[in-house]
Amino acid sequence: MQEIKNKIKNIIFDLDGTLIDSIPDIHKSINKSLEYINLPEIPIDNIRKYVGNGAKALIKRTLNFFSDKYDKKYLESLEEKMYNFYIRYYYEHCIDETNLYEGVKDTLKKLFELNIDMFIITNKPNNIAINTAKKLNIFNYFKAIIGDGVYPYRKPDINIWNNLKKDYNLFENETIMVGDGIPDYDFAKNSKLKVLLALYGITDKNILLSLKNDYYINSFYEVYDFVINN
User: Which residues form a coiled coil (predicted)?
Assistant: First the structure.
């Protein structure tokens, strides 16, 4: 193992849109769930806009797509049934078409060899996040994977960081966040962490660029470059 000579000792990663390209499987799982409750499919571009704030928000936004055709109370009555089916189906099909982004496996390995402590904080349901990481053979690189359901709050809530730094003895000046969404940006800012925003992920890069963040990456390989140069 190499000695860390840089200041960065910990990295918090988002999952979807940062480590993995998961939209095809989320889209398929949503459409299977819609079929289960006798509603038609929705386009994949809508899914790109709906993800990021957890599965329940995803279900609510998906059903809202049909608000011009169905009564609001009727759609609300379908939420729990659709959510439960979605969680079961997606758990079993979480990597049918999901892949790691280019450079993820190699970069995680190199960071691990630098003794960097790595974490995943995601708004994806925790059991699905862990299952996905295991099936894609990246689980063992991480000190902890914290998905939705571990805490009674989700990104961008600062309480996640407060718990994490207490449990793992982390410090703001030694930790960075890598993500591709507004919740990642807001979480990092709330927690006073530097954040690398991935322009290759799910969120429209023009939205991310409009934030005028200090650090952007176009490839996952750039995470390693940032670490060894800071």
Answer: none
Using alpha carbons, select from 230, 229, 210, 226 the residue that is nearest to residue 13: 226
**Domains in the chain, CATH or no CATH each:** 10-19+101-229 (3.40.50.1000), 23-93 (1.10.150)
Taking all residues of the chain, what is their mean pLDDT, rounded to a whole number?
95
As a whole number, mean pLDDT of residues 191-206 equals 97
Q: What is the pTM (predicted TM-score) of this model? A: 0.93
Q: How many angstroms from the chain centroid is the CA of residue 135?
A: 16
- The Cα 116–Cα 142 span in angstroms is 9
Using DSSP's 3-state secondary structure scheme, residue 125 falls into: strand
pLDDT at residue 59 greater than cutoff 50: yes
pLDDT tens-digit series, residues 106-126:
999 999 999 999 999 999 999
Looking at residue 53, what DSSP letter applies?
S
* Residue 32, SS3 per DSSP: helix
Q: Is the pLDDT of residue 4 over 70?
A: no
The first and second tokens of residue 187, run together, are: 């979480």
Strand 10-13 versus strand 175-179 pairing type: parallel
Contact 196, 177 (CB under 8 A): yes
